[in-house]
Amino acid sequence: MSNLAEQVAKLHAPLDKTLFRVLSLVLGFYHVAMVMWDPELYSESIGGFNAVISPMLIWAICSSMIFGLSFKPRNWYWQVLFSPYFSLSILIYLTVLRLI
């Protein structure tokens, strides 16, 4: 691994715990289930699907699955793109919107 990849891996080290991986998987599966079960109700509860929410939801779900299944990208740019910091914050935000 390159030096930059090692630095990004160190940045992700605090979240590299089983609890966060399980949380990531549970949130990802929850949002997939809600979209598949009743997309219209889910859309209404989060404020509608639009050009910002939809791609961020898809990206956050994919990223949460990558992180939750302990897949570690080699290159730094993939590590940043699939960062658990971004995916967990998006999924937690959508969960709060959905449940409130």
Biggest sheet features: none
Pick out the low-confidence regions: none
Number of domains: 1
Q: Quaternary status of these chains?
A: single chain
What string gives the helices and strands in order?
HHHHHH
Shape: elongated
Helix content bin: over 70%
* Rg result: 14 Å
Judged by helices, strands and strand pairing, the structural class is mainly alpha
SS element count, helices: 6
Proportion in β-strands: under 5%
Mean pLDDT: 92
Query: How many distinct beta strands?
Result: 0
What is the end-to-end distance? 43 Å
Keywords: Membrane, Transmembrane, Transmembrane helix
Pfam families: Cyd_oper_YbgE
Protein name: Cyd operon protein YbgE
Transmembrane segments: 20-37, 49-70, 76-97
Structure summarized in a few sentences:
With 100 residues, this protein is mostly helical. The protein has helices spanning 3-12, 18-37, 39-45, 53-68, 76-81, 84-99.
